[in-house]
Design a protein that fits this description.
The protein is of the alpha/beta class and 581 residues long. The chain has 23 helices and 13 strands. Helix 6 packs parallel to helix 13, helix 14 packs parallel to helix 21 and helix 16 runs parallel beside helix 21. The chain binds 6-O-phosphono-beta-D-fructofuranose (F6P).
């Protein structure tokens, strides 16, 4: 019998739907008393410890979720991804970010061709180039070594590398390799971001890496032209060859831009932008900053999870478990959001990366064959490192809306501090919160307990916590480059699991295109109004009003600017002349 078009039409889905009412009668306070249940919800891989006992699930729920995975053909879909089948059907592409971190001797095929040798060719080129730059063998146009790097790119060509950079910055090994060097990112087309990215940098000692899969993204290309101007106005047009390199799948456009193709680092259509941090997109800027050997460890970490995800049984497969639990929370329990709460400042850019990875991948309204989904898929991801988040939005999580939380912590700190006389080390202080918060969410505090604690009657409702708020905890051994690679791959695969079960295409992003085309229309109008004084037309009343006001106000501000800078020195000069007569 052919499988139903939508997963929601299967018996396994309907069974889970019915099971929801049973779960609604439970409370985590009681579920947590069942040690056998809790033990079955703890999983370990290479020192990474996942505890999902604070999810609103029983063993029975998990059994039903595994059955759902079976009927969704999760295993087969994972295999198809790894074997290079074109599972991104709307773009007719393979989805092979796992090939980016495959071992040199591995064989992975797309279109009948083993892609691993090409991957390693680029990695070897990056190793060679980054060593030349770092050692000073590659020098700038004026003969100085290049010590600073600005990576220009947006979306997937920015967020993943930024996350890894932020995570490695305080790792002792990586930091040692980065001494005397700076890596900055320029993503937003806002000129303020340009100013920030080059503040105090000297073009003579700076290398600009233009990162764009398509090499057509408007923001990136304008920023790249702006930095090209920054370099050539200071060092001459010829300096671009020494001070600008590119990462792209579109090498002809790299050449047209004026970057020597010999200084371009390729990647491929089978790498989605948001899954590209392990390609030259991340590996080049990060190797320039930390050296290739450190970045190789990051790739090895991701590879260890790739192997685990491919081969571990679902019951002990970390990405599969967390992916199925997300499906359960979003679609069956109806919790639309998830908070990502890393208890380390080193992971401060993790949530923004996951935001794009998850929301661009799974923010879809139709199944892979185009049928509208009769259920909610995708989720809203946000987060902040603990304990900053605690002093910001945790109030809502504790007593307002129910938001399933991912607590992510590490056994060892990257920067341990032990102060004499303190009760605990600084890391233990931080981690006390990591352990306490999930229990506060799960158990809550009921009025009886409060009265026993002699809380005045009128404050009891305000101090009551319903509890029963789900979370999961991931405890990593440390936050080395290897661990960071593992964490990244867990989330990449988790998102794929969600999409595979929901039956959507997690690897296209048609929604983003609409905004891009409307911006093109506005850009044309701004040009026509400013240069040829054309009236605003072709937009709705609201946009016409906003645009007209923007043009009018900026015109008057420009006039003021001209008066101040041109007229006032002119007037002062006349005054000086008069005085001297
Ligand atoms: O690398 P590119 O082609 O400049 O694209 C940047 C980003 O734009 C998007 O297409 C949309 O945000 C992302 O998927 C991608 O990561």
């Amino acid at each position: 019998m052919a499988s139903p078009a939508l997963i929601s039409e299967t018996e396994q889905w309907k069974d889970l739907k019915q099971h929801v009412s049973e779960i609604q009668t439970t409370h985590l306070r009681d579920l947590m008393n069942d040690v056998d249940r809790c033990q079955s919800m703890m999983v370990e891989h290479e020192g990474i410890f996942l505890d999902y006992s604070r999810q609103r699930v029983t063993k029975e729920t998990m059994g039903k979720l595994f059955k759902l995975a079976e009927v969704a053909h999760l295993k087969e879909k994972i295999e198809k991804m790894y074997s290079g089948e074109k599972i991104n059907s709307t773009e007719n592409r393979s989805v092979l970010h796992v090939a980016l971190r495959a071992a040199r001797e591995k064989e992975i095929y797309s279109d009948g061709k083993n892609v691993v040798p090409e991957v390693w060719q680029v990695l070897d080129k990056i190793k060679d180039f980054s060593e030349k730059v770092r050692s000073g063998a590659w020098i700038g146009a004026t003969g100085k070594p290049l010590k600073d790097v600005v990576s220009v790119g947006i979306g997937g060509s920015f967020l993943g590398p930024l996350f890894v950079h932020a995570a490695l910055q305080t790792d002792a090994v990586a930091a040692e390799y980065a001494k005397g060097r700076q890596l900055r990112f320029l993503a937003n087309v806002d000129p303020v971001d340009v100013a920030r990215s080059i503040k105090d940098l000297d073009p003579e000692t700076t290398l600009v890496v233009v990162v764009s899969k398509t090499f057509t993204t408007a923001e990136t290309m304008l920023n790249a032209r702006t930095l090209r101007e920054w370099i050539s106005s200071s060092l001459g047009a010829g300096a671009v060859a020494k001070h600008m390199v590119a990462v792209s799948t579109n090498l002809p456009l790299v050449k047209d831009f004026g970057i020597d193709p010999a200084n371009a680092f390729a990647f491929w259509d089978w790498v989605g932008g948001r899954y590209s941090v392990c390609s030259a997109v991340g590996v080049l800027p990060l190797s320039l900053q930390y050296g290739f050997s450190v970045v190789e460890k990051f790739l090895e970490g991701a590879r260890s999870i790739d192997n685990h995800f491919y081969s571990a049984p679902f019951e002990s497969n970390i990405p599969v478990l967390v992916g199925l639990l997300s499906v359960w929370n979003v679609t069956f329990l109806g919790y639309p959001a998830r908070a990502i709460l890393p208890y380390s400042q080193a992971l401060e850019k993790f949530a923004p990366h996951i935001q794009q990875l998850s929301m661009e991948s799974n923010g879809k309204g139709v199944s892979i064959d185009g049928t509208p989904l009769p259920f909610e898929a995708g989720e809203i991801d946000f987060g902040e490192p603990g304990t900053n988040g605690q002093h910001s939005f945790y109030q809502l999580i504790h007593q307002g809306r129910i938001i399933p939380c991912d607590f992510i912590g590490s056994v060892r700190s990257q920067q341990p501090i032990y102060l004499k006389g303190e009760v605990v080390s600084n890391h233990d202080e931080l981690m006390s919160n990591f352990f306490a918060q999930p229990d506060a969410l799960a158990y809550g505090k009921n009025p009886d307990e409060l009265l026993r604690d002699k809380v005045p009657d009128h404050l009891v409702p305000h101090k009551t916590f319903t509890g029963n708020r789900p979370s999961l905890s991931i405890l990593l051994p440390s936050l080395s480059a290897y661990d960071v690679g593992q964490l990244l791959a867990i989330y990449e695969h988790r998102i794929a699991v969600q999409g595979f079960v929901w039956g959507i295409n997690s690897f296209d992003q048609w929604g983003v295109e609409l905004g891009k085309s409307l911006a093109t229309q506005v850009r044309k109008q701004l040009h026509a109004s400013r240069v040829d004084e054309k009236p605003v037309q072709g937009f709705n009343f609201s946009t016409t009003t906003l645009l007209s006001r923007f043009l009018e106000v900026s015109l008057s501000l420009n006039m003021l600017f001209v008066c101040y800078y041109v007229y006032s020195p002119f007037m002062k000069a006349i005054k000086r002349c008069k005085n001297s007569i």
